[in-house]
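INPUT
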Amino acid sequence: MTLSSPRALPRQAVIREVGPRDGLQSIAAVLPTAEKLEWIREAYETGQREIEVGSFVPPRLMPQLADTAQVLEFAKTLPGLKASVLVPNLKGAERAIAAEADLMLVPLSASHAHSLANLRKSPDEVVAEIGRIRAARDASGSRTLLEVGISTAFGCTIQGRVEPAEVLRLVKAVLDAGADRVGLADTVGYADPATVRQLFELILPVAGDKLNCGHFHDTRGLGLANVYAALELGITRFDACLGGIGGCPHAPGASGNVATEDLAYMLASMGMATGQDFEKLLALRGKLARWLEGQTLHGTLWRAGLPRTMCDLKQGVPS
Amino acid sequence: MTLSSPRALPRQAVIREVGPRDGLQSIAAVLPTAEKLEWIREAYETGQREIEVGSFVPPRLMPQLADTAQVLEFAKTLPGLKASVLVPNLKGAERAIAAEADLMLVPLSASHAHSLANLRKSPDEVVAEIGRIRAARDASGSRTLLEVGISTAFGCTIQGRVEPAEVLRLVKAVLDAGADRVGLADTVGYADPATVRQLFELILPVAGDKLNCGHFHDTRGLGLANVYAALELGITRFDACLGGIGGCPHAPGASGNVATEDLAYMLASMGMATGQDFEKLLALRGKLARWLEGQTLHGTLWRAGLPRTMCDLKQGVPS
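OUTPUT
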């Protein structure tokens, strides 16, 4: 594989905390609403300015997220916080638009098998739904951003290999259908830095700045390496879960998303501003561990602490 | 930071298993010699062709490695296996030469404070000792390679910051003193992919192909990201410990080196031949976990398994 010349590393990066959605949906226990609000308020106080707060799916399918409307309403009271919500279809999108979410995230599985199993729709049916969501958004005069997360973009536990050409075709299709942004998601931890580079290099010429999110699960320990490979291509926005929660409800102990605190540490160590206060972030992780007692949390910074060279680092910028 | 253009990713990489030395020396329990021999034989059967088998230090300082001569003697019976041994000084080097080790590794702390605390010598006193070791090697007609591992190259828990210019000065000095090879070691998990790139880019023009080893501890979860950053610069040889053992005897549960099995997975996933059989490697990890019962092992592949796209991968080359 020949590597093209990467740009300079970005000077800033955004971490979207997706724990209250992607993390909690994979955990059988239901976190009470009061604790979700405390999580979001304290994440905001650590400096977090993007949070995925829940999902507008039928509560019977995902009781953990049944209070999404209430959580979103609270998130909107925090000045400058961009609140994302996942919506699987037009019906969910209508709720997100009515609730004035800052961003609605529509997942689209690049794996046909996963798409059928997860959403009971083919990828192209989801593309059509995205077109309807865009039309509904525009008709309502809403300012809710429409982001599409291309899940299983690096492979699928059901289907196995997912062709990069198919991911490219779907990205073109969702942009044509009116998505404001797209992200590439390694839902099941199949990506490695080389495939991250290859896929982002394939998609960037088509999507340009509209491709601005990397979502990497740390299932096989490559989450942060994958983030670095994407950073080298100028990607500056990443999903993460505090304590690396998420994983899979059928695989006890399996890692979920990259851990917010470890990602924030890597970025800060490389001189990138993220605005996070590490002391508060690690305190919040401790609180989450207590709330989710019995669940396996992940990550390393909570144990190792900041290196001596960064101990006066408070706001995500090394001294 | 402006990134220079990286080369193509290498097609092959070498993992040196350093668990029997770097891993075990950080664990209070003493692994019996018979189990060390079984570890080395089975690591060889997984496809491992470089192993650091022990350390020629006084047994009273490191009882875990008191059987190094016996372990090295066994390792030398395995055809094609390159057996490394750590030597802290000329006395240790004389033992390595007499025992016909394939390679002797001399650690040199770039941190003056760490060097004095660890070896009771300044870095320049170690450089002088390396000159004496080279002279002794040449005088004996031995073919034992002399490698210097520049430890705390990315920072130090005692001293804090370590200046890249000082690392560069020491690399030049040890090459002048007759080292055949040098490696850069992040002994305490302070490196990140950006500093890995910066330091290797600084050293490569001086050391060229003689700089051929990266030794990254995974203390803060960046071990594999750091390996990837070094791979992009053409570095193709990395130290690792099965199960990520090592860490620090004073920090229970802390990660040690990057886990051999996770590193082998990342390399194989990126299409790089490492010659490792994953089934055997994970079976050996299970055995090590039993031998070291009560110790925390690390890594992710043992739990997650190979992805579906790589399940027929036996020899480190994806199908």
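end of record. Chain B has one domain: 14-310.
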